[in-house]
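Dear colleagues,

As part of the handover before I leave the project, I'm documenting each prediction I ran so the next person doesn't have to rerun anything. This entry is a single chain, and its sequence is reproduced below.
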Amino acid sequence: MSTTISAPEEADQLLEQAQNPAQLRKLSPAQLSAVADQIRQVIIDTVNDFGGHLGPNLGVVELTIALHRVFESPRDTLLFDTGHQTYPHKLLTGRLRTFAHSLRQPGGLSGYPNRAESPHDVIENSHASTALAYADGIAKAHQLNQCADRAVVAIVGDGALTGGLAYEALNNLGAAPDRPVTVVLNDNGYSYSPTAGAVATHLALLSHQLTEVTDPDPARIRPSSNIFEQLGLAYLGPVDGHDIAAVESALHAARRLARPAVVHVVTVKGKGYEPAVRDQEKLHTTGPRVNATTWTDVFTAELTAIAERRSDIVAITAAMAGPTGLRSFAQRFPHRCFDVGLAEQHAVTSAAGLAMAGKHPVVTIYSTFLNRAFDQILMDVALHRLPVTFVLDRAGVTGPDGASHHGMWDISVLGIVPGMRIAAPRDATQLRELLNEAVACATGPTAVRFPKAAAGAEIAATERIGCVDILARADRPEVLLIAVGPLGADCIEACRQLSTLGIDVTVADPRWIVPVPPELIELGAPYEVILTVEDNTRSSGVGTAIAQSFLDAGHRTPVYNLGLPAQFLPHGSRSELLDAADLSARGIVATIHRLRAQLRGRRGGQPDDRH
């Protein structure tokens, strides 16, 4: 769509005006085109400054404009699935200035919908395939409340229809012809990577009809057969998602139907920014460049090396081959790497089937997405004592992606699974070693967790007791620091600082943190105080398990836990968020000083005469 408006200052004024959806509805086609161009420029400039999701947001600019012109948010409910396609939505709902100066920054705007930011943000989601179920529930409530004039719209994009929950919702929506939910299918052919599976093939066949469409009425554009009509939903489309007028016409038609309807909108991921169109996977999201070897890099190289030696090793990803390090593995072993789409539950039970048939599956998954497949881990893998290895990328604090992406529950979740063994490497050498130990296990499931960060310097052990590494040994058994994974570096630094104050500290790395190694209990028995340090929630984490193990063994040594608070953490840098939770050398030192003071108080205020 061309525009006659070329003055930058006039375009800026239009975007300011367009922040109010009521004013947006008054703009002419030429003005809307100028607003779309300006939205794209703001997104490109902001993401270049702060990082964030680029391609998905550039692809939905015209679609979002049309949505806010047809529907009256927040009276009408707009539900975005997934939430990483909501930058244009934020810009059109009064957040232009804060967006351009604070996106994903501490205290600034979230990179996902956020209910605290705006009444236009209804669900705070980044985990895909959820919006249709939300929509079903909200529409039911509207029926019960007799609010027939309030629309419910679910915008499903970036491969969300590869997740099973979406089909559970479609199954219910299709059976309720009096429940008028509009499903806007933003079809760009991608999730993170190209969308995998038969559904993607089906959508591609439907979207190819776009070039053949001549009838301007989307209500009469009806392919002979598609999955949505078979499930009982009306189908409108395919529609050019970059033609605002065409999208508006389809949305109005869907609303008039007053029944569950799918509006199939075809878009180009990265539209308007050639680098993002040319490499849609790489520029799905951007962030600060890590000029060092990352944990994911180390995992990738080692898994490939293991697979060279062992033909039974297979890998599974849930639409995240690139981010989880499986792209090069897939290139080397194309028939031994399986992308199941955004379907974590299927990934895990499919892995169970592979293990039953003699393979050793390695399921690579973001820690935060592991929660979605708990039942499958428990009942499909662990109950059968199957050798499946889970590699949990983005464990602990991930940084600017915020609450939905912090991987701070995996130890708590997996720690209650019978037979599960969990490893937390402190450096690259230990990641290679522990990954080999994990895939060597043939008696049950294993997991290896690591953060989104540079792998850091190697931390050598002074000795190994069973599977426990001693990183620093004190002369006297005063304080035992138990370090989980990469937090070993902060524990070593805290030990150094405390030693200058005459406080004896031993630092131990269990390596395998679940179950608690018996050698660790024996090691800690004579110490005055034990402090565990982990980037999992304090609730039901490593510290909780170690404290219970000491009680079960009859030891009275007090065990204290440093971990993440049992709350949803905001977005911010990894180092800042860890420090705020006292999971830094500074926080560890302060905690030990406080604990020693408490212990002296319990002794009746007697001075500590050992120094």
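Residues 29-50 form the longest helix (22 residues). The longest strand covers residues 529-537.

All the best with the project,
I.
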